[in-house]
Amino acid sequence: MKMRAAVLERFGEPLVVQEVELAEPRAGEVLVRLAACGVCHTDLYTASGADPSGYAPAVLGHEGAGVVEKVGEGVGSVAPGDHVVTLFSPQCRECIHCRDERTNLCLAIREEQNKGHLPDGTTRISRGGEDVRHFMGCSTFAEYTVMPEIALAKINPEAPFEHACLFACGLSTGLGAAINTAGVRPGSTCAVFGAGMVGLGAVAGCRLQGAERVICVDLSPERLELARGQGATDLLEGGEDTVERILEMTDGFGADYTFEATGSVAVMRQALEAARMGWGLCTVAGVAGKGETLDVVPRLLITGRRVAGSSFGGVKGRDQVPVLIDRYLKGEIDVAPFLSHRIALDEVNRGFELMEAQDGIRSVIELS
Ligand SMILES: NC(=O)c1ccc[n+]([C@@H]2O[C@H](COP(=O)([O-])OP(=O)(O)OC[C@H]3O[C@@H](n4cnc5c(N)ncnc54)[C@H](O)[C@@H]3O)[C@@H](O)[C@H]2O)c1
Ligand SMILES: [Zn+2]
Ligand SMILES: [Zn+2]
After folding, report:
1. Whole-model pTM?
2. Catalytic residue from among 29, 37, 46, 62
């Protein structure tokens, strides 16, 4: 079938929205009609050419939500008409990682996904006979996509797509960092560095876990106000003295849990140093630049602080994204403030500009 999609033709140049060919879903695959898709930093990072593992031509986008249109042979967990959220982090439920509660890093299709292929090593997208690759196994800057069944979370159809799509990446990452990776205990003091989509999700996650105090640090006063709306009790403008200020606010000890959601290694260090001796846990969610390293004074670790990394918030997508969406539908998570701009597929490059200008938290492409 023919469809419109935003194609990365050359790194560092605007995406080109054009008509491409999409083949039928094969065994284990699903055709999804996309309804909404968030524009994320990872899309821009790849489009810019900064990501050394990027490839082109490819259809970008990975924060999608839509409706199952058709299923390939052997697909049993979703059926036409189901509402789904796309998962760049799949869940096969069979590999050694999927069977272990300690991680969400499914091993089933990693290699081919990293090459821009579907699990059988081929692509379903093409243009004039030339293959176009799938981005992060999703390619959701498009009217339709074909994805593996194991990379789709079936959600409550009452959730509006423009909100549901935010659970495909940043929001679940932040929520999950607090709920899964850190497992914040009720009554705790937390400090969240960064109030973008991920950090605001972490603030909400700390609140849902029953934290008593949530300190949020950011450079932008507007973003700090959004953090207050998600449950932050103390707001701090970030700077050189952030660690000292958090120590002062916590009787000199630091926070029980800290979260880093900026991508800056200097802030990761602050987040570790602001964690409490004895049991303070620093969860790193930000993606640092290639080659950058985190500077840690080992004494801080010996005296009981720990550092953990978190990919997609440790969320096992098919099991947990539907649960997070149900909590949102029950009114426990306020998603509306994150949707800053609604744009058309043709305006995808404007979505990148808005992001670079830090105008709002997320632009969402409305597809149907
Ligand atoms: N681990 C994962 O699975 C995963 C998933 C999605 C995104 N990410 C990463 O998480 C990070 C955050 O993503 P986002 O979408 O929220 O980004 P964002 O750019 O919207 O938010 C980052 C925030 O950090 C703030 N910040 C920058 N420097 C600061 C400082 N010195 N002190 C305090 N705050 C500071 C900025 O003002 C901004 O509000 C990125 O690195 C992104 O790549 C990770
Ligand atoms: Zn993303
Ligand atoms: Zn798996």
Report:
1. 0.97
2. 62
